[in-house]
Amino acid sequence: MPTSINGLSVERVDGDTPARADRDILWRVIRDDDLPCEPHDSVSFLRVEGEAAPGGIVTHHVFGTQGRVRCRFSVSPDGREVVTRVAPQVAECDVVGLFCEPVMRTILVRRGLPSLHAAALTRDGSTVVVMGRKGAGKSTLSAALQQLGWSVVADDLVCVAAIDGVWHCFAGHRQTKLTPAAVAHFGAQGLSTRWRSATEGDETDDGKLLLPPDPDSVAPPVSPVTALLILGPRRRDLAEVECVPATAIEVMRAMLDNGTPDPLAPAGAPPSLDPGVISGLAGQARIYRVTLPDRLANLAESARKITALMGS
Q1: C-alpha distance across the termini of the chain, in Å
Q2: How do residues 124-169 score in pLDDT, each as one tens digit?
Q3: pLDDT < 70 regions, the chain
Q4: Beta-strand (E) ranges in 266-305?
């Protein structure tokens, strides 16, 4: 039975299992114990490469740890099929996580669907999209908002579309990644790392812990966007969060900075984000420039103030 992610129905089949026809994406997973070694300086690595094929370019995402390829995802030129070859020792949660975030970015680009590097959360009819560069505090703010009853709609990748003239975001991967310091602050226990292995001595820890969504929280499959938060760099001199309306220039820059680029485009190339997406979201949502204090102790109060702002 196909499942839905980012508004697309995905059918996963293992090996040569026959597939249904009524789905948006066919994801075929093949466990392969003969993936090649690949000397690499990093503990873990990612390589994206293109290969000419009938109908266009196949995009390959190659993930590895400890000098060995662990997963290879091949996305068809039209973004309708993905073939994954994965080493037997790779945990299922890692295979799903890679498909739902970096590989799904490519799928959305190939299908011409706009998306943002962001998190989306919903509560009491309000849905907020949180954008910001790495290190701005998206994940820690998301975790703090979840403690106040917000439900994660998507983490790290948010697909948006206009439905009957109203811009919505779709439910995506709902797993927040936190640093050990943030986990200790929130008092979470028993969280898993990424790149877990079934083989002793063959694990790699990238320093992030996975916070699953509250099992009692429910994210709607599609939600109208009511607010955008643009996170700037955190500041140690701040005693409390700053939230001010964003200027038109700040909105445009944030959208372009956080739009999903083509993974095969040259480094630094802007994302192919249609101007209609920017103007549509800017005309519909309340948009704030948010600066968080660079202290975990201030996080709960920051989340409370943002929650109050969203309810005003």
Answers
A1: 41
A2: 999 999 999 887 889 899 999 999 999 999 999 999 999 999 999 9
A3: 1-2, 37-43, 188-208, 312
A4: 286-291
Listed residue (85, 29, 70, 76) closest to 57, CA to CA: 76
At 1 the pLDDT is 52
Report the alpha-carbon distance of residue 223 to residue 219 in Å, rounded: 9
DSSP 214: P
* CA 202/CA 155 separation, integer angstroms: 27
Amino acid, res. 177: K
Label the pairing between strands 222-224 and 227-231: unpaired
Closest residue by Cα to residue 75 from 41, 34, 25, 39: 25
Nearest to 75 by CA among 94, 87, 62: 62
Residue with tokens 């970015």: 105
Reported pTM = 0.89
Domains for the chain: give ranges and CATH numbers: 3-110 (no CATH), 115-311 (3.40.50.300)
Query: What is the reported pLDDT for 215?
Result: 72
